[in-house]
Design brief:
This is Transcription factor 7. The protein is 41% helix and 1% strand. It has helices at 20-39, 43-62, 72-88, 90-104, 120-125, 176-180, 224-227, 245-248, 276-279, 284-293, 304-320, 325-338, 341-361, 379-389, and strands spanning 265-266, 297-298. α2 packs antiparallel against α4 (90-104), α11 (304-320) crosses α12 and α11 packs across α13. The longest helix has 21 residues, at 341-361. The radius of gyration is 23 Å and the shape is globular. The structure holds a DNA duplex (15 and 15 nucleotides).
Length: 413
DNA sequence: GTACCTTTGAAGCAA
DNA sequence: TTGCTTCAAAGGTAC
């Protein structure tokens, strides 16, 4: 069992965010992971099992009478499936096509499990190319993560989340350099993990140092840091080196002209309203009014798996030519289980730091604050869908009977 | 325009 | 303490 650095290097010893269940997760998944790794032969297996699981699910439900303990509920499901069978299968077919398309792609059939994971943690470790005038970006290592390779060579002013894959990097506008003048800070890549509220500044330790040196060794394929040495603070810079980027930001108050909106902060509409440089085009008065009118939603910090998905999604899309997030997430879920404990530990650690930082920045925030923000179907409706009332993205009928997939690797199922 | 699907994990809440 | 529910991301799909 990996011993996570529950202390996390944070001072005060109050860091109990080490999520004891993370360790439990390792415990529970240990044997299963081994099985998964043994059986993880590559994307073909990923996709084939995904396909077969979908088929089995339908067939199993249709033949539910043979399942021990299967009663009226299974019969009802089977009946419902039977009624909809003809029409619902177009989705699996479509999925199959997608999967097979993915298999045709040579890059999809190679090395899905072989390559080193660019851990989110390692991505945090890397430093952006120096942004001095007249300096040319040094050669970047071959990162699959497109988000780490801004096509325009200008370091992205991206939050922590954007360290991870962005399948559709925003093309640089022609006047990008000009627009960047409006950016309050030319702290690329590492900027804006979380913007600080005005009141939270004092609660942070002297330097909320984003781990440096890294707690985990850089993977051989992640030599980003070697290529881009830590930026040296400009003379007179108000912040020390290795200070957490959030400290480099403006007031951090959402809507404040000098603030960089954190992805955890979204307008009530649920969408990021403006890019930083777009926002800067607004007058301060307008921004102030807007801030008063729209109280942004502070979103939950991402958990380990979400961070993993962020990083790996683009890679899976590229390798398997899949687009449906539901299918991609299934693959990612299985890959997650196939990860070694050490690799998972990186993400757990990163997620722990996310939560810690989130807690520091938004002391009064609770996950409960966002309850009900999403308009979700009623529970009754949800149950209806589970019993055959509505098909899912794959044309199958989700049922709680399939829930063990949430707790067991699909390779075991 | 918006909910759903799918995944795992964290957190909240009721019993 | 246990079990259930909601939300976090993502983008195609359906309504």
């Amino acid at each position: 069992m990996p011993q996570l650095d529950s202390g996390g290097g944070s001072a005060g010893g109050g860091d109990d965010l080490g999520a004891p269940d993370e360790l439990l997760a390792f415990q529970d998944e240990g044997e299963e992971q081994d099985k998964s790794r043994d059986s993880a032969a590559g994307p073909e297996r990923d996709l084939a099992e995904l396909k077969s699981s979908l088929v089995n699910e339908s067939e199993g439900a249709a033949g539910g009478a043979g399942v021990p303990g299967a009663g009226a509920e299974a019969e009802v499901r089977a009946e419902a499936l039977g009624r909809e069978h003809a029409s619902q299968r177009h989705f699996p077919d479509k999925l199959s096509e997608s999967l097979e398309d993915g298999l045709k792609a040579p890059e999809c059939a190679s090395g899905m499990y072989k390559e080193t994971v660019y851990s989110a943690f390692n991505l945090l470790m890397h430093y952006p190319p120096p942004s001095g005038a007249g300096q040319h970006p040094q050669p970047q290592p071959q990162l699959h993560n497109k988000a780490s390779q801004p096509p325009h060579g200008v370091p992205q002013l991206s939050p922590l989340y954007e360290h991870f894959s962005s399948p559709h990097p925003t093309p640089a506008p022609a006047d990008i350099s000009q627009k960047q003048v409006h950016r309050p800070l030319q702290t690329p890549d590492l900027s804006g993990f979380y913007s600080l509220t005005s009141g939270s500044m004092g609660q942070l330790p002297h330097t909320v140092s984003w781990p440096s040196p890294p707690l985990y060794p850089l993977s051989p394929s992640c030599g980003y840091r070697q290529h881009f040495p830590a930026p040296t603070a400009a003379p007179g810079a108000p912040y020390p080196r290795f200070t957490h980027p959030s400290l480099m930001l403006g007031s951090g108050v959402p809507g404040h002209p000098a603030a960089i909106p954190h992805p955890a902060i979204v307008p009530p509409s649920g969408k990021q309203e403006l890019q930083p440089y777009d926002r800067s085009l607004k007058t301060q008065a307008e921004a102030k009014v807007e801030k008063e009118v729209k109280k942004p939603t502070i979103k939950k910090p991402l958990n380990a798996f979400m961070l993993y998905m962020k990083e790996m999604r683009a890679k899976v899309i590229a390798e398997c030519t899949l687009k449906e997030s539901a299918a991609i997430n299934q693959i990612l879920g299985r890959r997650w289980h196939a990860l070694s404990r050490e690799e998972q530990a990186k993400y757990y650690e990163l997620a722990r730091k996310e939560r810690q930082l989130h807690m520091q920045l938004y002391p009064g925030w609770s996950a409960r604050d966002n309850y009900g923000k999403k308009k979700r179907r009623s529970r009754e409706k949800h149950q209806e869908s589970n019993t055959g009332g509505k098909r899912n993205a794959f044309g199958t009928y989700p049922e709680k009977a399939a829930a063990p997939a949430q707790f067991l690797p699909m390779t075991v199922l």
